[in-house]
Design brief:
The protein is an alpha+beta fold. The radius of gyration is 24 Å and the shape is elongated. Helix content is 26%, strand content 22%.
């Protein structure tokens, strides 16, 4: 047998071994990847268009579960944006915004939430307050955050370590720049 034929047989044997290993990896790893739960995506339909944000349940499981449950219950439907500051943020999640006569107190006080604070501050420095980050607003105590969400229009690193970042806008970013205080939140749903 010549050296050339011997080398080709070694190459063929090595390729066959690699193919067998790849098949075993596919059979055992593929189902595990498919079995991982989908990351909830929150879809927000407004009077100016729709946007969606993926959530970070690994870093903030209790917070993401709380917000997703509020969305599924219809809590956000019919509310209004109560804070919109160009080049800073858009904020909603206050049920008082359903009543235009209460506009002076939108976003303020104990009634500006669902009444069920999350109870933990899942602040992670892995998730930063970058442009289009979605975080939980609070009145000074992160563990008392509840239903109010803010979406940053530009990076705000000075907020890192003070607020739980629960997601990142992945669709409809252009809609956020069109939102103003008083614009309606028609519907919020969860896509899993």
């Amino acid at each position: 047998m010549s050296l050339h034929v011997f080398q080709w047989r070694r190459v063929a044997l090595a390729l066959a071994s690699l193919a067998a290993i790849a098949a075993v990896v596919y059979v055992f790893v593929s189902p595990r990847l498919a079995a991982q739960p989908a990351v909830p995506v929150i879809v927000v339909e407004t009077s100016q268009g729709s946007f969606a944000f993926e959530t970070f349940p690994k870093e903030a499981p209790v917070s993401v579960e709380h917000i997703a449950a509020l969305a599924k219950s219809g809590f956000y439907d019919g509310q209004r944006v109560h804070r919109a500051i160009p080049h800073f943020l858009v904020q909603f999640g206050d049920p008082q915004t359903k009543d235009p006569e209460k506009q002076a107190v939108w976003g303020k006080g104990a009634d500006a939430s669902s009444g069920h604070p999350i109870g933990v501050a899942e602040i992670s420095l892995q998730r930063k307050n970058v442009a289009f980050a979605v975080g939980l607003a609070h009145m000074g105590e992160p563990a008392k955050a509840d239903s109010q969400l803010y979406i940053l229009l530009e990076p705000k690193p000075d907020l890192d370590g003070q607020y739980v970042v629960i997601g990142q806008v992945v669709e409809g970013r252009e809609v956020l720049g069109r939102l103003s205080a008083g614009d309606s939140i028609r519907r919020v749903s969860v896509r899993e």
